[in-house]
Amino acid sequence: MRMLHTSDWHLGRSFHRVSLLTAQRAFLDHLVETVRTRQIEAVLVAGDIYDRAVPPLAAVELFDQALHRLADLGVPTVMISGNHDSARRLGVGSGLIRQAGIHLHTDPDACGTPVLLHDAEGPVALYGLPYLEPAMVRDRLGAARAGHAEVLGAAMDRVRADLATRPGTRSVVLAHAFVTGGAASDSERDITVGGVASVPAAVFDGVDYAALGHLHGCQTLTERVRYSGSPLAYSFSEAAHRKSMWIVDLGPQGEVHAERVDCPVPRPLARIRGPLEQLLDDPGLEGHRDSWVEATLTDSARPHEPMARLAERFPHIVSLVFDPDEGPARTLASYAQRLRGRSDQEIAEDFVEHVRSGRAADADERAELRSALDEVRLDDTLHEVAR
């Protein structure tokens, strides 16, 4: 069976206040054309279809058009909700949509209920595991504790139990999670809970292919466990990413052969760094005139109107960062710059150490901070669901 694995569309997202709707439409055109010309037999979308729980109308319309186009091709499509999606909103009408061959999996209780497809080699069971917020689904799944590894493990136990009743059936799982060994970027929303966000790849043992979503870089964790990554770059930390989808051929004995298919690039990303005058004069930067640019200025003193001057040479500059190379001006680095790449837990622990003149939080205090952060995250999640 030939499958197309994609994820993290984030419909409705912008890039530094630049609308990406046209680029997202071009990607979906490319996806539909790939399905049509490459004889795809099933489309897998591993979560974060929208960028937020209540997406803008234009994003909803774009998603609706994509569903109609896929249904018109007669190719079954399996989708799961991600941590950016509102599972309840995305799942509205899923029973009716299923009749058109579009299978939306948003209910954790249905983790062990597959979509059954058939090809010349026999049946294939596709299990959709929506993003599982540990504190919200622990009891429903019977997990030992409210952790990512435990709830995903409990969901996979249901998958394996169902699969055991289907001898000779090949299997595919869609999941939205941070799996150990994956490389993160700046544009994924933090899903840390209980101090640990990642789950081991071994949780997917027993299935032929795990189609993952959440991390925005395309990556292979094992031959059978892969991230497709996002189809577009959503932060400058993804400047070096090759945006693509996986075409996965599942053989008669569950053998996996995967091929990357590149996605359209609306505009390349460029990170440039140096004193303002150097960035304005360096002939080696001429190739970035049509790129979205992030410029980091290393001048010891803040130059006059740097954004306007840079925009004359780089019309698509969207981000300006000040990071002086040396001297007192280094303290001018922005608060966001100093916190970049640090988790909420690390920031809170740093604050405790700062206000106590260098005495770091002990184990009990770190546990209290972790518990408080988890409660805030759960409250935010419940608020989004209520909305």
TrEMBL record:
Entry annotated with the keyword Transferase: no
Alphabetical UniProt keywords: DNA recombination, DNA replication, Endonuclease, Exonuclease, Hydrolase, Nuclease
Domain Nuclease SbcCD subunit D C-terminal: start-end pairs: 266-355
GO molecular-function term, one example from the UniProt record: endonuclease activity
Origin: domain of life: Bacteria
Keyword Cell membrane: no
Listed Pfam families: Metallophos (PF00149), SbcD_C (PF12320)
Domain Calcineurin-like phosphoesterase: 1-217
BP terms from Gene Ontology: DNA recombination; DNA replication
Family: Belongs to the SbcD family.
Oligomer status and interactors: Heterodimer of SbcC and SbcD.
Function comment: SbcCD cleaves DNA hairpin structures. These structures can inhibit DNA replication and are intermediates in certain DNA recombination reactions. The complex acts as a 3'->5' double strand exonuclease that can open hairpins. It also has a 5' single-strand endonuclease activity.
Protein name as catalogued: Nuclease SbcCD subunit D
Lineage of the species this protein comes from: Bacteria, Bacillati, Actinomycetota, Actinomycetes, Kitasatosporales
